[in-house]
Amino acid sequence: MDIVKGNMGWIEVVVGPMFSGKSEELIRRLRRAEIAKQRVQIFKPVIDQRYKKNGIVSHSGLEIDSEMVTQGEDILTKVAARTEVVGIDEAQFLGETVVEACVKLADLGKRVIVAGLDTDFMGRPFEPIPRLLAVAEEITKLLAICMRCGNPAVHTQRLVASEELVVVGAGEMYEARCRRCFEPFLAQQKVEEEKAASAARSHAAR
Ligand SMILES: [Zn+2]
Asked: Which class would CATH give 10-205?
């Protein structure tokens, strides 16, 4: 943000696929706020249990203490009046109410920094992040590196058989893919293959 006068709040959003460094960028901004002696509070969804209970940890191991919430509205009840900067990681798991929560906090004069996935495993907009982008003052879109060809990667490729919107995991379950290497129907195909295989097995058993 360029020039901010008085105690005006705002919303900045960091989006991109998995492995693009969103959590790292969020932690970097929050650390700088802490160095500037600002009062910071950080939230993440209960669903993201990987690595650590009460901290945000990036894939590269950076970490910062955080509070767990299940819905966007929970953040409003937990933010102290004197908090100046509010960080939210993995916001796509906090439901529709996370948008209203961010708007309320910004209206109260707080700087709100949100990180999240903007597209799902099929490359579709991941609600409510697109709505959050619409009301944000500043948007940073990060790209990962395609694990197939090394080009800039905009997509999160799911490698396992599941059509659920939310399957939390890292490492072997997902990889970053560029536009050319992305296979939006891969997870769906794997589900079909598994169904066919188990049907064949039960047929053979009969
Ligand atoms: Zn590629």
From this structure: alpha beta
Q: Which residues have C-beta under 5 Å from ligand 1, the single-atom ion?
A: 146, 148-149, 151, 178, 181
Look at residue 160 and tell me whether its pLDDT is greater than 80. yes
Angle at 35 between CA 80 and CA 102, to 5 degrees: 40
Which residues are part of the catalytic machinery?
90
| Rounded Cα gap, residues 76 and 59, in angstroms | 28
CB 134 within 8 A of CB 100: no
pLDDT tens-digit series, residues 98-143: 999 999 999 999 999 999 999 999 999 999 999 999 999 999 999 9
Whole-prediction pTM value? 0.89
Bridge-based pairing of strands 155-158 and 174-177 is antiparallel
CA of 203 to the centre of ligand 1 (A): 39
Distance 184 CA to ligand 1 centre (A): 13
